[in-house]
Amino acid sequence: MGQKVAKRSFLLVAIMSIMLFAMSITAFADGGMTGLKQTEASESEVAISYNAVTDAAGYLVYYAGSDGVWQRPYGRTEVSQLDSRTNQATVSGLKAATVYTVKVVPVFVVNGAYTADENQAGTLQVFTSPNAVTGLKQTKATAKTATLSWKKVSGANKYYIVNSSAKIVAKTTKTSITIKKLKTGSRNTYYVCAVKEFNKKAAASQGMGLYVFTTPGKPTKLGDYKSGNYVWKPTESNQVTIGWNRSKNDKYYSSGYRLEIYSLEGKKIKVYDIKSGHTLYKKFTSMKSIRNKGFKCRVTGYIKLNNKKFYGTKSSWKVIIPQPGFKMTRTGYHTVKLNWNSIKNATGYTVYACKDMKAEKPVFYKVKEVGAGTTSCEVSNLTRQRYVGFYVIPTVKVKGKTYKPAPTWTIYGYLN
User: Fold this and answer.
1) Using CA atoms, how far apart are residues 293 and 238, in angstroms rounded to an integer?
2) Where are the beta strands (DSSP E) in 233-306?
3) Is the Cβ–Cβ distance between 123 and 172 less than 8 Å?
4) Which end of the chain, C or N, has fewer beta carbons within 10 A?
């Protein structure tokens, strides 16, 4: 998780640069040249425009850094080598996040020769954008926030956080920021642009993008046998399967889940780390500490960022009580005796039977309720030449609370 998003092509940068300059860059001009202004900026070049001078054949463009040494693009020196024939020009080969002075000199044709008129020259200050941000990563996630960090960019004095709609959502002078008011279980794309601000103007670098996550939402249907999220058949196997559903509002699959197993009295028994967000269940062997007793459990999804887990909203606790393992014995033409093992903390048992398991819709009826000390029951009035089925439900009481298991399995046989 937390993978980088490919740079969004130069479109975002172009839009950002044009927008910033259109809103804030004004002209600083003197001499005969008028309307000089900077229209675009990147890490290595600037674009300028100006009002055309009447009868000018073209223009020479000079630029100088803090050393005050004038030079022209591409090392040109001759007046006949015009830098522009229109009312705009681009100066390339510049250093990132650097202020330059640009001078534009109109050139005229006098007696068949190009002549530069320094008396009509105009100057303005321009500046380049910083280099792009590096080292961008998400360092923290909560249900509603995401924290990003990156390396300091030389020459940048501010950073803009931009969403996938190219809207600036935050500005900072630091190399980290926490984005707030996000939705739980969300995945969004954000870009960080390094910005050079100068004379109330701003030039932004190309945005570096990242998928940004909040922590997962609350899992549902934990241990719900009607949803296929619970299997425990003591007669057939000691294996228990506990499943759950991911939050319906999550926009991504969690990195994994933590399943906690506790005794009914609240003692921690086992914690499982499910290392795949696509695995929505855990199978484990019924431990001695829960066999014929039951347990309670809860599950929590997590997002893994830079090898650190950030846990989401915990599920509700789910109490799991096992049905007792039992066997049936034929005691007459129409009768069967059931014997089962006792369940700890049981206050009684309820026996259910079905006279025709092969019916289109098998119907179970309650045979009888017996006390905690009773672990057998005879069922009569059964129909011969039918598949008959049975299950037993214990009632368990722990710390004043009463629990019953889900009827997840039955035992059945044929009465000849």
Assistant:
1) 13
2) 239-243, 256-262, 268-274, 281-285, 295-305
3) no
4) C
Contact in structure between 362 and 389 (CB atoms under 8 Å): yes
**Nearest by Cα to 341 from 324, 323, 320, 329:** 324
Q: What are the DSSP calls for 13-46, one per residue? A: HHHHHHHHHHHH------SS----EEEEE-SS-E
Phi (first) and psi of residue 376, to 5 degrees:
-150, 160
Per-residue confidence of the chain (416 residues) as pLDDT tens digits?
A: 554 443 333 333 333 443 444 333 333 334 489 999 999 999 999 999 999 999 999 999 999 999 999 999 999 999 999 999 999 999 999 999 999 999 999 999 999 999 999 999 999 999 999 999 999 999 999 999 999 999 999 999 999 999 999 999 999 999 999 999 999 999 999 999 999 999 899 999 999 999 999 999 999 999 999 999 999 887 677 789 999 999 999 999 999 999 999 999 999 999 999 999 999 999 998 888 888 899 999 999 999 999 999 999 999 999 999 999 889 999 999 999 999 999 999 999 999 999 999 999 999 999 999 999 999 999 999 999 999 999 999 999 999 999 999 888 888 899 99
Residues 6+ apart with CB under 8 A from 395: 346, 347, 348, 349, 350, 402, 403, 404
Burial bucket for residue 160 (CB in 10 Å: 0-12, 13-18, 19+): buried
Residue 129's nearest CA partner among 4, 21, 11 is 21
Q: How far is CA 238 from the centre of its chain?
A: 37
Q: What are residue 277's DSSP bridge partners?
A: none
Task: Report the C-alpha gap between 326 and 13 in whole angstroms.
Answer: 72
Residue at 102: amino acid letter: V
Structure tokens at 406: 């889900």
Q: How far is CA 192 from CA 96, 185, 200, in A?
A: 17, 22, 20
Q: Specify the pTM.
A: 0.82
β-sheet bridge partners, residue 46: 41, 91
What is the C-alpha separation between 252 and 304, in angstroms, rounded? 12
Question: What's the order of all strands across the beta sheet hosting 176-179?
Answer: 137-141, 146-149, 176-179
